[in-house]
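Need MD-2-related lipid-recognition domain-containing protein's 3D structure for a figure. Predict it.
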Amino acid sequence: MVPLFGLLNNLNGCNNGFTCPVQPGNQRLRVYLDFTKYPDVLNWLNNNTSYQMQATLTDKSTGNKVVITDQARIFKP
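Structure prediction for MD-2-related lipid-recognition domain-containing protein:
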């Protein structure tokens, strides 16, 4: 895992790639993340390499949490 040092903390997940509301239970979610907004993160990542990312989404009104773990391969132009 690549440490992001809080760079992505406190983002509104519904406005940044996650389909809301997230329903309870195991499911497949399509998540769109645009890391071009974070060029420093892209510079740390090697091309044609697999990475794992874990995101914790918190419903601020209830405190309920959803943890999403995904694996992807990075391809840079």
